[in-house]
Amino acid sequence: xxxxxxxxxxxxxxxxxxxxxxxxxxxxxxxxxxxxxxxxxxxxxxxxxxxxxxxxxxxxxxxxxxxxxxxxxxxxxxxxxxxxxxxxxxxxxxxxxxxxxxxxxxxxxxxxxxxxxxxxxxxxxxxxxxxxxxxxxxxxxxxxxxxxxxxxxxxxxxxxxxxxxxxxxxxxxxxxxxxxxxxxxxxxxxxxxxxxxxxxxxxxxxxxxxxxxxxxxxxxxxxxxxxxxxxxxxxxxxxxxxxxxxxxxxxxxxxxxxxxxxxxxxxxxxxxxxxxxxxxxxxxxxxxxxxxxxxxxxxxxxxxxxxxxxxxxxxxxxxxxxxxxxxxxxxxxxxxxxxxxxxxxxxxxxxxxxxxxxxxxxxxxxxxxxxxxxxxxxxxxxxxxxxxxxxxxxxxxxxxxxxxxxxxxxxxxxxxxxxxxxxxxxxxxxxxxxxxxxxxxxxxxxxxxxxxxxxxxxxxxxxxxxxxxxxxxxxxxxxxxxxxxxxxxxxxxxxxxxxxxxxxxxxxxxxxxxxxxxxxxxxxxxxxxxxxxxxxxxxxxxxxxxxxxxxxxxxxxxxxxxxxxxxxxxxxxxxxxxxxxxxxxxxxxxxxxxxxxxxxxxxxxxxxxxxxxxxxxxxxxxxxxxxxxxxxxxxxxxxxxxxxxxxxxxxxxxxxxxxxxxxxxxxxxxxxxxxxxxxxxxxxxxxxxxxxxxxxxxxxxxxxxxxxxxxxxxxxxxxxxxxxxxxxxxxxxxxxxxxxxxxxxxxxxxxxxxxxxxxxxxxxxxxxxxxxxxxxxxxxxxxxxxxxxxxxxxxxxxxx
Length: 800
Hints:
The chain is of the alpha+beta class. The chain is built from 27 helices and 16 strands. Among the domains are: 2-54; 90-269, Orthogonal Bundle (Penicillin binding protein transpeptidase fold), CATH 1.10.3810; 685-754.
């Protein structure tokens, strides 16, 4: 029996010996392999580990936000434009990423994501097996989500051992520095979803035209199918590949417990059809909205100071700085993910554009580039807010490529539309005259090159000169005020291209070196509508950063008083007369007060109409990009007719109201009534202050020298109060108080003289009016020549 057992024991020893030998041999080979690897790649491993430490240490969570696309919205919240750099992306925080998206990526890319520390060795082996089982199809990758993030952010896509080693080290370090939620957030926002889209939100907007949170679960999973191969799984080119990958993800989600079998079946059945989004037309609204946003960012983010009063030397340096800052702000807009809200109305824009195209339909002459020669520009502003509602930069291009927005990019001579801004309204403010002021309509000191009409050579009222667009009167007004003073008003209205060479009388008639655009002119005319208060025209109502910080709000914008209120009211009355009785009749439509001015330049190269109602301002220009004579435009009053055809539909909602509820301009008489109410209030305040002191003075007993001094002090206080309020008190009230004080002094004179205390002398009462508030608005009663009978000022002070 012992002999039988001995071989068995010997067998066990031999097996054990064999196993130990195998393990030792395996260990030897492993150590040898590690030694070879270390000998071969030791320096590389140390180098890559050090590099990984440095890279991860230097990065913060905000740097994973990356480049973000900015969005511009119209007044109704519709997406107007996407402003992006090299790629389109929108960053979502972890809690804003739908759970379905997070689960889908974990299930298909890295189902042990919550268990490993950056590198999953089991997944690497499993991936190899999956490739074999699925006949070569890559169903599940070996790299973890953290490794993929490391590759996308820090590395390239080279397939070599050095890159793989560094990828693994970076993954380890990322897991140490950031939470699992952070890493998954970074990953979903930074991977490529094809067609220049990065991040799940960009993909949702690209392929379905809506935010990811608005998608169905199946659509969300469909988007998660793209990053495995952004080209091969492109939904627009290879939708079947995308669907196949989506189904694989759904099955993986069921396998790992994210979905039930019933949910899987339902999601598989859902038909998905991505949209082919239209490419941006970069139209007039978009180009202007982008430009306006950039200028706000220049000021609010980069602290650029816009200037309008510059010498030629200063201008050169200023323009250089402007261009540099503009480019920097443009880059911010492309990359920082701003949400920009505007006042631009697609409905108003469509109306204005269609009217422009229709008005110029018969002008078919083309330029060498194949576009229309005769062009137009329109700017429409809301008077109350100063915000731009619509901006037409030209006719609809034949090739639908919008290259030039003339409304803010083209500077042209303004003709007679400049006269109310630079001559008449400043004259009413500075000199104080009224529209009945008689002046000589004659242009002097002109040269052969200026080609300025000499005028009628007769005396005429300012009212008549405005009505028929005479040249001599504004010329002489600017000469009297000085061109420098006239130009100062344009600088206060933020006209950009005013240069030293413009300092001459010719500016009264629109003779400038560069000129104006419709945006600037609309800003100036809306200032008249606001009784002299200037608001810088813009379409930007609010800008919010990607983090939710409000960078700009139009409600906080500062305003500036440019013209005297009285002056703008008088100017408005003159411009209403232009539309009712003068050169601007074609702009008139019933039911609404309209003030406006026509303008034509030398040889009829440019035609303008600038006008406003109590609600809106619109400025229209028609001409050729390369100035050329075109009498047909001005003779047909195209600009004034365009004003009527655009503004009448825009005012329909007001016209449908009862006549009493429709806004009207402030009249001279209403202004005087307001001033009278203010005066009455001021007088009441004065009386309430001075009456108790007069009563105290009347009851003051003078029984000693100290009493006399107290009487004298009180009397002096009353005189001081009267002097301080003198300009705001009517003669009647001043006389009444004056008499009361003097009567009290007279009655106390003997007692005061007894103690040798003599009160000061009260101010003598002037025979002049106490204030010019009431007088200054009266119309000067100047003689009107026989040839001007019927143009009396009273014809425009009573509203039709």
